[in-house]
Every structure is written in C-alpha cells, then in structure tokens.
Design goal:
Blueprint (H helix, E strand, L loop, with lengths): L18 E2 L7 E5 L6 E7 L2 E6 L5 H21 L10 H17 L5 H19 L9 H12 L7 H20 L24 H13 L4 E8 L5 E7 L7 E7 L2 H11 L5 H6 L5 E5 L3 E5 L11 E2 L2 H16 L19 H19 L14 H13 L5 H7 L4 H8 L9 H4 L11
Helix pairs in contact: 2-3, 2-5, 6-7, 7-9
C-alpha cells in the first residue's frame, strides 16, 4: 500500500514561519511562503482576511510594514471602504490631511489665517474637482487637467494663487504617500512664478498720507457710487458734507489710530495682522545707546523672533498708550490699536483700519503707484523695508530680513524689486583709493 503524502502549494504559508506582531492583536501575523523570498502580512478583521507582501526579506522592516498595514486596514474599515473596491478616494485623503492641519493649528504651528485660507480653498475648489477619485489614479495627466481648470476660472486667478492651489494638492498626495495609500507622489506640471510686489510710498507720499490722515481725524468719509451716461459704474470717496454727485454705499469715521498706525508701521516693519494682535504686554521700551521698541509679537508666517523698531515708533507708542490710558485700556492685555474692539472683534478692528486707509488712499490719489502697482495697507511695511534699503547706510540684508520676520529671498523677490541703479547712484559711482602697487 502506498501512503498519499499531501503536497503543499507554493503559496501556502509555511507554518513554522508564523510570527505575531508584538503589541498588536493575535490576528495580525507575519509569515513566509515558498513562492516568494519576501515576508507576507496577514490580518483578519470584519470576517475577512487581508494579506499583502511586505516586499522585504528583512524581518525588522517587515514588522514595521505590518504595523502600517494594520493601521491602513482599520482606517478603511472605519471609512466604510470595502476590499472589493479597495480604493482610497481623494476626499478621504484630504480629510485626513486637514485633520493633521487642524492639529498643527491647535499646537500653534499654523496660523489661524493660513488654516482658514487652506480650508476655504479645499472646500471651494479642490475637493469638488477631485471628489470620489481614486487617489492612486491621480497622475500627471489628471494634475495637468486640474491646472487647466484653475487657469480657466473666473475671476482669473494669479499665477501665485494657482501655484498655491497646486501646492495644496501636492501636500495631500504627499500625506497619502506617508500613509502608504499611494506608492509615490506623481510628477506635477510646472506652474511658474509671477512675482508682483505691492506698491510702496516715497518719502513725499508718506508725508502726504500722514498729514492728511491727521487732518481728517473725527471726520466721516463716504464711499460714493456713480454711473455715467453709458452705464459705467465707478466708486470714489468724499468727505461727508462735500458735493458727492452719487449714492452713498458705505461710510467710515477717521480715528487717531489711522495716522498713528501709518507712522508706526513705517518705523516698525510689522505686518497688518500684527496690528490686530499687538497688546501692550508685547511692547518693551528700550533706552540705552539706542532708543527703540522691542516687539515680542505672536508668531507670524513661521517667524517668532522679536522686532527692533526705529526711534520714531517709540514716540508713536507713547502717544497711543497715553491716549489708551485715558480710556482705561492701557493694561498688559489691552490692544494697542483700536483698543475698544475687544478680543472677539479683532478681525473687525483690522477691517476698520483697512477701510480708513483705503479711503485715505483714494482722497490723496495714492491708490496706485507711478509704476502702476496697487497700494494697500501692506504697502506701509513695504515702505519700511525700502527706506532701510535706500537710506540704511549699507544695512545687511540678512539682518534686515530677520528683524522684519521674512527671508533674504523674499526681500530680493518682492521688497527690493523696485530698486533701480539711479536710487543707489552714490554707491555705484563710489571709488576706493588705489593700493600702492596699483599706482
């Protein structure tokens, strides 16, 4: 009699190779098969068996892959993804990425403004376009089609905005790659750059702004809508009581904060968002060999180092603090500008300052620079940096960038973009004494 010996299939797990993953459920195991030199992972859950090649012969690496496989399967089960479809959609990857971004925001590694902007762009444009798509099937062609979609939107997006949108999609795909939902991040189409620096104010224009703002304190400025015979609509500002020739759309009362803000920003390098966040506890007056303010402001755009101001900022701050003290709002937790707008109204405080400044630009005819660049409240920071570059006696760009909470690259690309040879004619035509061997 011959004894029948069962033949094991080459893909059948080798019983002696079974190994549990320490610290994980018993149903997560590693094993070997004769048909492959690699370790394999198997996990039983929800009445199904999930398995995958670890694609490594190294046991330690296989253990790490098994742990990630366990997390992936449980995430799929939680999201209702069946093994029959086996796909992770862009919506799921996007939600996971935004959850991690929310955690960064809670840890104060991401500013509220940045987090809000990213959330808006995801919900308004990115998620609707990629809704329901298998993230593993998003390749160069799909990304190029999305780039064309962004280019055709109305109102037209700037190159920098389009680049920001593509950067967010890349971030989601990179997040998916870290989660092992895709093997690699696909190649992205080139977007290019289009640096458009804001307009800045020359010395004479800066003085005009300050003097006009001081004269307008207490007056109400109205935004007027007019329509000509051909139906063209335009807007302009007039001081209340003057001839307006149109209908009033909005009005704003000019406060002392406006002219003080103009001088303070030009002498302190701060951003407009710093205006709404600045409290008296963030400001220290330093009087040593040099007089200046040390501004220990909340982090902005990834920068947290103190800012050293020009001497004029000290005078402005002392005037503002004296005025706030008369209102009973000069304590450490009180805000420096627009102090009557409390903690929950700081966004509104900045909007009121922006509306006042916009009205001032219109009244002085300084809304557009001679080069055609639009001017906003941010142009005051631009002017502060330009004045140092022009009149700072050869200031080091790195030190200026650090103090202004930016980078030398940003100084070169945006702030210093308007610099022309004629502005530095003295340096360009300067001479050094010839050395003895050169005579």
């Amino acid at each position: 009699m011959f004894e029948l010996i069962p033949v094991r299939h080459r893909c059948t797990p080798i019983r002696e190779s079974y190994e549990r993953v320490p610290g994980y459920p018993r149903k997560l195991v590693l094993y070997r098969i004769e048909a492959s030199p690699y370790w394999w992972v198997r996990y039983f859950a929800e009445g199904k068996t999930f398995k995958r090649s670890a694609k490594t012969e190294v046991r330690r690496d296989a253990l790490q892959i098994a742990k990630r496989f366990y997390d992936e399967i449980n995430f799929k089960i939680q999201q209702g993804i069946t093994e029959s479809t086996g796909k992770i959609t862009f919506d799921i990857a996007c939600k996971s990425f935004m959850d991690s971004e929310e955690a960064k925001h809670q840890r104060e590694q991401l500013s509220a403004v940045t987090h809000e902007n990213r959330t808006y762009r995801f919900k308004r444009t990115i998620q609707p376009y990629f809704k329901g798509r298998d993230i593993a099937r998003i390749d160069f062609t799909a990304l190029d089609e999305f780039l064309n979609h962004l280019s055709g939107l109305e109102p037209k997006l700037s190159i920098s905005t389009i680049s920001a949108y593509m950067g967010l999609v890349r971030a989601v795909l990179a997040h998916a790659a870290k989660k092992n939902w895709i093997h690699h991040v696909p190649e992205f189409p080139k977007v290019g750059t289009d640096d458009r620096p804001r307009g800045w104010f020359r010395i004479g224009e800066y003085k005009t702004l300050y003097k006009t703002a001081k004269k307008l304190v207490g007056k109400t400025v109205e935004r007027i809508r007019t329509c000509d015979d051909e139906g063209n609509v335009s807007f302009h500002h007039v001081i209340k009581g003057q001839e307006r020739g149109g209908s009033v759309r909005k009005s704003v009362k000019i406060t002392n904060d406006l002219h003080e803000m103009i001088v303070f920003m030009v002498n302190s390098y701060i951003r407009p968002t710093d205006l709404k966040n600045m409290q008296h506890k963030h400001v220290d007056i330093v009087r040593r060999d040099y007089t200046y303010l040390r501004l220990n402001l909340p982090p902005s755009k990834g920068h947290k180092y103190p800012i050293t101001t020009m001497p004029w900022a000290v005078r402005v701050y002392e005037r503002v603090k004296q005025r706030n003290d008369a209102l009973g709002r000069a304590g450490p937790e009180d805000y420096v500008f627009m102090p009557t707008q409390g903690k929950d109204s700081r966004d509104n405080a900045l909007k009121l300052l922006q509306r006042q400044f916009d009205a001032l630009l219109d009244l002085t005819g300084l809304k557009i620079s001679p080069n055609g660049d639009p001017r906003t409240i941010y142009s005051l920071r631009h002017s502060a940096i330009m004045f140092r570059l022009l009149y700072g006696g050869g200031i080091d760009t790195l030190k200026l960038a650090r103090n202004a909470r930016t980078s030398p690259e940003m100084i070169d690309r945006f702030y210093a973009a308007p610099l022309m040879g004629e502005m530095a004619v003295a340096e360009l035509q300067s001479k050094r004494r010839p050395r003895p061997w050169e005579r």
